[in-house]
Amino acid sequence: MRSYSVSLLGILMLLFLARCEEKPKKGSRVASLPYYNDSRFTPRWLEAGSEILKEFHRIPEFDLVNQDGETITQQTFNDKIYVADFIFTTCPGICPRMTANMALLQEAYINDTDVLLLSHSVTPEIDSVPVLKSFAQSKGIQSGKWHLATGDRTQIYDLGRNYYFAEEDLGAVKTANDFLHTENFVLVDKNRHIRGIYNGLNKTSVRQLMADIETLKREN
């Protein structure tokens, strides 16, 4: 009887170890993602195709230039899921870590045509096309997958503050002269709706972003 108990225990332990070695399933902890329409990031759980979504907050049209000197607009991201952030090439603080984590997204989705990346320069007067091109080459940024955007400063700051809600200084009044600096990554779906915000410095948060991208891909 004793040897039978030992054998049974061994089988149970092998089953437990096998389960521990299983790869986690891709996808978010929820079946669908919420929608967001203001800087408080209060989740709105809406059905796809809902009438409310016809008038719901979207990222507006824009006209910027990428590291290859190409004009990029919403047409560039038409029918794409994309992740946006706001950086500058001479940043000595949070931007290098954000760029390293965005590079993880590039690696994960390098062959996935449904997913793009968009980094806006918050110092476009410094980050010219040649500067962005040199930066892209130094960081292994792939043209066509990850766009580094420069252009009109007012437009970039308006997008960041009033449409991506990228800053967390809720209630603080900002002018066009106030510097835009944030560690957030913003997830945008194929219909230009915001579906998530993530700490771009935190690898756990970036892993959750990847899981949420998988959820969005199933939705679309």
UniProtKB/TrEMBL annotation:
InterPro entries assigned: SCO1/SenC, Thioredoxin-like_sf, Thioredoxin_domain
GO molecular function terms listed in the Swiss-Prot or TrEMBL record: metal ion binding
Residue span(s) of domain Thioredoxin: 53-218
Keyword set, alphabetical order: Copper, Disulfide bond, Metal-binding
Disulphides: 91-95
Binding positions (Cu cation): 91, 95, 181
Pfam families in alphabetical order: SCO1-SenC (PF02630)
Gene3D superfamilies: Glutaredoxin
Family per record: Belongs to the SCO1/2 family.
Stored PANTHER family: ELECTRON TRANSPORT PROTIN SCO1/SENC FAMILY MEMBER, LINALOOL DEHYDRATASE_ISOMERASE DOMAIN-CONTAINING PROTEIN
Protein name, as recorded: SCO family protein
Source species: Poritiphilus flavus
